[in-house]
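ERR on first pass: missing label on line 2. Operator R.T. fixed the label and resubmitted. Corrected input:
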Amino acid sequence: MEDFMIKNIIEKYDTPIYVFDINILKQRIKYLKEHLSDKIKLCYAVKANTFIVNELSDDIERLEVCSPGEYKICHEQNVPQEKIVISGVYKTPSEIENMIVNSPKIGRYTIESLEQLELLDELSKKYNIKLNILLRLTSGNQFGVNEEDIENIIKNRDKYRKLNFVGIQYFSGTQKKSTKKIFRELDYLDNFINQLKTNYEFNVEELEYGGGFAVNYFDGHEFDEVTYLEEISKMFENLKYDGKIILELGRSISASCGSYLTKVVDKKTNKDENYAILDGGINQLVYFGQVMAMKFPYYDIYPKRQKEDIKKWNLMGSLCTVNDILVKQLPVSNLQLGDVFIFKNTGAYCMTECIALFLSRDLPKVALIKGDKIELVRNSIETYVLNMCNENKNIERKEIKNG
Ligand SMILES: Cc1ncc(COP(=O)(O)O)c(C=O)c1O
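pass 2 clean. output:
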């Protein structure tokens, strides 16, 4: 982020704050498209960052939505229904029914269990609506179903009059730095798709593959992304399967657009260790792969300074736990109260996977940068109300009634 932009944000909104730069997001999508085979279309896994759905829906083919909350966000932000893929292990039957009624043009539903299949079958008939279905193949965990289940569904596909089985969805994990694992998975999927064709004359039209592509977060832990994307592209090009390929990506799309700004509010030296206390902490920021705060995330410091009077500082948050460390032993030049740390690559999961309710501290503000404008899209939110007995008598009456 440019210095004048950081200055403006701090002066106008103060810290802590998450900033998502839509210019960087758009550049990132363009970069991915340029470095991936033309055969590949992008689907954004909304869970990575829900603040940007509106900004990227024009630039990508689909958005994967895994919970009623994520669906409501997309619905309220006017994301085109056709682009939405409803996925994820559990939504109540009434929540699924609401989606079908309120958004009849939803693009795809994934099947994560035989119960979900029955439910979608029933609802499709009840509302006389054709639903496009992706069958999620498990990678050996609670998600998706077995190969045999998929084969059985395909064998009996005529039974599901209103379900249009368009293909397979597969996701096996995140932050995959090794292309070997991706290669093994694609080979396995290629064979499985071929088997469905040979055994059941079923043509998979779409393969939606959750790539789990890796992101560089820490100084000294870089990998060569250009070669990585090139190798993966080649793998897709070499598949026997020649249908549509959709890559479901979260962190690889949105991580780079995010910055988290937090300020030094106190400092001390205890038993020869330097501690800078920040107005944020692990309740507001979590990096995938950070271990005991030992790795150095990419960051800037504002105001900028010369490399002089360098000391090692432990950057601590404001929680009541010794574990509230953002970085250990970070060499910083001439650290002062009021200095702002700008943690980079924090546009995916960093703000939602943390222990936000601990100590009842407020949630940070959120701003978007669009062109040269800054737009505040969420004010800070008090969490103490979520951590206290609610005096609203409606809750009491409901509980008595249910009991
Ligand atoms: C089904 C599915 N697809 C895609 C993703 C996105 O993964 P990533 O952020 O690693 O790209 C996830 C993440 O949990 C997922 O569960």
